## 1
Amino acid sequence: MGRKARNKQAPPTPLGGPKHARNGSKGKRKAPSSTDERKKFKSAKGPAKVKQPRVFPKRRRDEDVEEEDEDSDLDEALQPGELSEEDEEVVKVKGRSKKAVEEDDEDEDEEVERGEARELVFSDSEDEGVNGGEAIPTGQHMFDLDEAPPSEEDEDEMLADEFGVDEEDEEMLGGDSDEEEEDSAFDSDSEEGDVVDDMDVDEAEADEEEDGDLQTNLEDDLTNEGYTLPAVDRGGEAEEHEHGTSLREVEGRMRWLVGVCAGKDDKLSSGVPGKSRSDHLLQLQHDIAVYFGYNVFLVGKLMKLFPVDEALAFFEANESPRPVTIRANTLRTRRRDLAQALINRGVTLEPIGKWSKVGLQVFESSVPVGATPEYLAGHYMLQSASSFLPVIALAPQPNERVLDMASAPGGKTTYISALLQNTGTVFANDSNKARTKSLTANVHRMGCKNVVVCNYDAREFPRVIGGFDRVLLDAPCSGTGVISKDQSVKVNKTERDFQLLSHLQKQLILCAIDSCSPTSSTGGYVVYSTCSVTVDEDESVVDYALRKRPNARLVETGLEFGVEGFRSFEGKTFHPSLNLTRRFYPHKHNMDGFFVAKFKVEKRTKAQANGKAKAETVDEAGVEIADIETDGPSAFTAAEDEEYIKESKRKHLLKTKGIKIQPKGGEKATAETGKGNGQIKVPKGKKLTEKRRVKA
Ligand SMILES: C[S@@+](CC[C@H](N)C(=O)[O-])C[C@H]1O[C@@H](n2cnc3c(N)ncnc32)[C@H](O)[C@@H]1O
């Protein structure tokens, strides 16, 4: 049987129920206790064990596969055959029998047999909401602010199925918000965070017992054993490591500082005499930066999101990979059949959780999961659990027209296509041409016949085409939710990056709303998502859209777990409906950090149409927003469409036949003007045949 998987991790509520609780790849983290949250961050008495920040290997190429013949059929290879007794053992998946997997799939089977599209059904069991199980990023954060062509290394990453894996994983893969704000690490009145609100308490207690002597007496730990605050004494300068201080010492002080700052204010008496709470927090920020290898700026930004003890849990979670998960492609197979086929190959897996009918979590494998015949035949996608969420929220219905504005490498596009059951149309757009190659490869591999791949800057929508029933904007972002997969985020982000990204996201979200048809009989929804946890890229963007597009309102995402979005942050108050948005965290949900918001787009009332919003040229971050209409959706007219079609035909002829159609009056036909006089210019040495003439 295959070796032990290294992707096992203690989810807040383990996948598949309590008996499947698993420890982290290094057995580091356990489910936190709801009784005394601070305890869980304490190590045994005495100096804490030093953990060196982990270095993660480069992602492997999993999507870089030959385009598949859509009809390719590996059924023969997939026939599970009769199971011997020995096989029967293999089929038992970590306490779950093959039968259990089958039972979980019963509904799904019905769905496939009836050929009827259905939204994924959420169980109402208590722990469903916290079932995590997530592994692979979606290349989300590989966004170049300057739209510079990607480096070769980036290319590799783009073509990959988004992994951040340790060595063994790599082998296996083959490849009320006011309160929230007050609770943030930098708030002097910080109270104990509600870190475990999504947890199954029984399970947490069980894990706590397991933790045994890891639980220590907080009061003892708060003893100041001669700690000082060197970063404060140096005037808060960003010197990252005092000379001669070992990581072990930094860790000891860091944990001590968490204890000091996490408690009610009187606990501060345990701190360094004469120093304020913010002094202690400043030192903590520096220590976290040194210990986990971040720049001090980013630590400060991320600490603001959480109560101080939860902040440490977040940083710790970023040190270990999330579980590996796959999505069964219902266009090619059923989850039960896929599970059986992979089990027969020595893969240990189980359903991802009751919230998904198509997800499987892979625990161990003796074969590379990214290179099995089933993978190559498009029976599944290596896809992080968190990246299922925006598509579940979008809930596309058969025969709809859906726009996926930033879609490469296609994890969500192919899921949308499957939920549409290959009906309707998915316009899968990405501005990065290189990335559209892996997108196209995935579309073919997964047997999606309802997808049109296009390559525009999404800010050109809806002028390119509009009137969609549903629009997904899985926006380019900083990737602060997927640090476990891309450790470079720790050091390469500056305040300017966040400003520019937020600016781009604001432009994109208006275009997304304007591309959605308010008169759609089945839809009229826009989903906005990022794999970043910063408020600049999440709530601020959504709040901006609500202000600029009064015809759009937030609705429930349909996701039954996740933390509510902030309704205020750092003195800014957002629209009260921001609580309908959902945040997902590695330390809470054992998934990549993610944000999901869902809008319903309605017809603009006369008042809205007349009372045009004043064009803003500068957003809150001081970034210029000059090129986006703020006074209403940009019109999409059939006449304009006509021009684009002509232009596209002209380019097609030029590319495929070498035939050049001169624009009218010598003017160059562009996507902007769409002008051309229909004159055919025959390339040298080529004769224009009648057939060509007619075609042209
Ligand atoms: C988060 S990733 C998309 C991941 C994809 N949705 C998936 O699930 O596989 C963001 C994508 O946005 C693309 N992008 C960046 N700026 C864009 C723009 N202005 N218009 C369209 N796409 C853009 C990037 O090339 C990148 O592929």
## 2
Amino acid sequence: MKISSPKTKIVCTIGPASENPDVMKQMIEAGMNVARLNFSHGDFASHGKVIGNLRAVSALLGRRIAILADLSGPKMRIGTFASEPIQLDTGDLFTLTTEDIVGDRNRVSVSFDRLPKSVRPGDMLFLNDGYIQLKVNEARGNDVLCSVMVGGELRSRKGLNLPGIDLGISAFTERDRECLQFALENGVDAVSQSFVEGPEDVEAVRRAAADMGYTPFVIAKIERSGALDRIEEIIAAADGIMIARGDLGVEVPIEQIAMVQKRVMLLANMCAKPVITATQMLESMTENRRPTRAEATDVANAILDGTDCVMLSGESAMGRYPVEAVGMLAKIALSAEAHRSMIAVKEMFKGIDLRGRVRLEHLIAIGVEACFEFVTPAAVFVPTRSGATARSMARFRFPVWTVAVSSEESTCQELLFSSGVYPVRELPMPENWNDYVKRQVADLGLEGKIAILTRGPSREHSETNHGVEILDLTI
Ligand SMILES: Nc1ncnc2c1ncn2[C@@H]1O[C@H](COP(=O)(O)OP(=O)(O)OP(=O)(O)O)[C@@H](O)[C@H]1O
Ligand SMILES: CC(=O)C(=O)O
Ligand SMILES: [K+]
Ligand SMILES: [Mg+2]
């Protein structure tokens, strides 16, 4: 199959607007690489059905799709309204209650029992990713009485944030454990944990999964200000990260989001961990056929800065134009990638603490970069067992595909989160790499007179030396 897709990977949240198999098919054809199931919404039956349909459509099209299960973490949410949306106006009084009631424009329930004890008069509370702001007047029994400072439209199950208030709950909750078990038993490829604050939150997910007999790819969602203080440790502990700008834009002053995004992205790139930029990327396409200039620019800038994946949330979950939104991301990505400079290998290594020890992996990357100064090869072929070698190459954003060849199905699935990586499963692994590379270059429709093949010792071939080979495709 010829590759025509952008190198940037596209993650789409599946919801009512996209759970029809025909829409899924169109989304895959438009460029979706990863389907995200948000376990904050829907029930197990609906998620189970979506997983089955995604696998069926992916098999039908012969296109690899990864499934990401997003675990809610300790996100507080409001309950439901009898009729919605409700309109809150500045100056209105509005009560949050821990009683299990059906809400109206005066009152709504919240999912956190200790809320009245956790807040004090004057505290600011944020609803629906901060669109609505409340000020606490008083906590009385089960109720928190508030004044609306910034009003707006409010719907059932929207999030509630209390920036800066320590709720004393760890990220991985009992509910997350149930969702994790369901997701793993249903064969998802990766899980993302919300509201991670330190490496121990990532470890909690890994331990729980291990107890269930699984070793999933774990993505840490960066959406708490506390996570930024321990970002290096979190990146080291996780397999990838998501810059979850919905909650992050409430928990951190919104004027700092751009700089936080750039800093976190660079750190993840240096560590060769894939990074997803998420939320409001094409927000206006929830209702409109075309994005705003600001949105189109935001997507392109994230790609130029080094994101591996761009993500759709409400646009694909509940919007009017899920397929068009995927197509728009793909078009913007193809256009931006043509202008992205290779991240200079030597420059990047300056940012990594090598402690005076240059690893062979680094020298190989420098060798590959040197080739690009003279000639553009058809592709960089990387045999890889865990995927780490492929990611360590692809982080430099070479202008050609990194074709990752692995005998492991899970490795191929996990590489769908990495920009510029085209995973191919081979079982058994090729014997004659010269012939194999030539055949793949032709099959994938790649162009060039040479190809690069990197090698490293693996568990299967521990005797192999690290190396870079330049293969002449003309003979
Ligand atoms: N499985 C689903 N079923 C119904 N609605 C969904 C589903 N998934 C997403 N949605 C809708 O799409 C919206 C946007 O999705 P998104 O994943 O960004 O959720 P969110 O509520 O903002 O929370 P989070 O911070 O967990 O991402 C949701 O608020 C919800 O209204
Ligand atoms: C995706 C997500 O959780 C957020 O943006 O907050
Ligand atoms: K979630
Ligand atoms: Mg969030």
